[in-house]
Amino acid sequence: MNGLFASLDARARLLAVVGATAVVASTPVGVLTPFVLYVPLTYLLLRTGQASREYLAWRCFAAAPFLLMAGLLLAVEAAWPTGNWAPGNGKAIWEAINWDAGLPRALSILGKGFTAVLLLAFLMATTELAELLWAMRRLGSPRPLNLILGMMYRYTSLLSEEYARMERARDCRMVRPLGWQGIGVHGHHMGSLLVRSWDRADRVHAAMVSRGFTGEWPVSRSSAFGMRETVFVLVCVASFLAARVLL
User: Fold this and answer.
1) 43 or 177, which is more confident?
2) What is the pTM assigned to this prediction?
3) Confidence at 33, pLDDT banded by 50, 70, 90
4) Are residues 108 and 38 in the same domain?
5) 182 pLDDT exceeds 90?
6) pLDDT of residue 202
7) How far is Cα 34 from Cα 41, in angstroms, rounded to an integer?
C-alpha cells in the first residue's frame, strides 16, 4: 500500500476517518448545503491513499438498498399529509402529499450514508485488520470488542470456504438441477454448516492456544503518532467541521 494515508500511523487513520464520519453524520436531516464541500473533501481524502475503485463501488452497491429504503421511509414520513382521511379518499391523499418536503430529507440521508460508507471502506482498504485492531486497542477500545471483531472477520472467510466446499460436493453428486427442491437442500446445508463450523472453531481455538495466542494479533510494522499524524487528523476533521458549521 502506497500513499500518504497508508504511511500514517494506524491511530491517525482511524481518528481521521471516524472524526470526518461523525461530523457528516451530525448534519441535521434535510440540510443539503454542507454537501457542497463534503463531496470534494471526501474526494481529496480518498486521493491521499490508493484504494481500488471497484472495492469502493462494491461497498456502496452493497449498502445502497438499505440507504434507499431509509431515505424513502423518511421522505414519505415528511411528505405524508396530516389529518384524518377517509379510507376512500386515496386520490385526495395522493394529491395532498408534499413531496417537496420529503425530498431534502431523503437526499440528506443518502448523502450521509454513502459518504460514511465511502470513508469506512477507504479505511478498510488501506489499513490491515491487525493494524486497525491495534489502533483501537491503543485508543482505549475494550479488549473483548477487539477480540470479537477479529474473530468475526476471520471466521467469515472460513465459513464461506466451508460452504463453497459443500456446494462443490453437492454439484458433483447431482445429475439434474435442483429446482424448487433446492430450498430444502440449502436449508440442510446451513444446518450442516453450523455443525461443521462449531467443530472447526474448537480445532482453531486449540491451535491458537497451543501457539501462544493471547487475544492480540501482531502488527507487521511499527509506527509512532508524530507531528505529521496530528496535523493530518486536525486538518481532516477541521475541514469537515468547517463545512458543517459554515454551510
Assistant:
1) 43
2) 0.78
3) very high
4) yes
5) no
6) 80
7) 11
Tell me the three cell numbers of residue 96. 395532498
* DSSP β-bridge partners for residue 3: 49
Q: Do 50 and 3 contact (CB within 8 A), yes or no?
A: yes
Q: How far apart are CA 233 and CA 229, in angstroms?
A: 6
- Which residue type occupies 68? L
The answer to whether residues 117 and 46 touch, using CB atoms and an 8 Å cutoff, is no
Closest CA relative to residue 98, chosen from 82, 84, 87: 82
Q: Output the CA–CA distances (angstroms, integers) from residue 59 to 55, 85, 124, 158, in the order listed.
A: 6, 42, 11, 21
Structural domain span for residue 185: 143-210
Shared-domain flag, residues 9 and 102? yes
Q: Minimal CA–CA distance to 214: which of 110, 133, 96, 102? A: 133
Q: Indicate the number of domains in the chain.
A: 2
Helix (H/G/I), strand (E/B), else coil: 68: helix
Distance CA 182, CA 177 (A): 8
Query: Could you report the per-residue pLDDT of 194-247, keeping only the tens digit for each?
Result: 887 777 778 877 888 888 877 777 766 667 788 999 999 999 999 999 999 887
Q: How far, CA to CA in Å, does 192 sit from each of 163, 189, 197?
A: 9, 5, 8
* Whether residue 56 is found in the same domain as residue 167: no
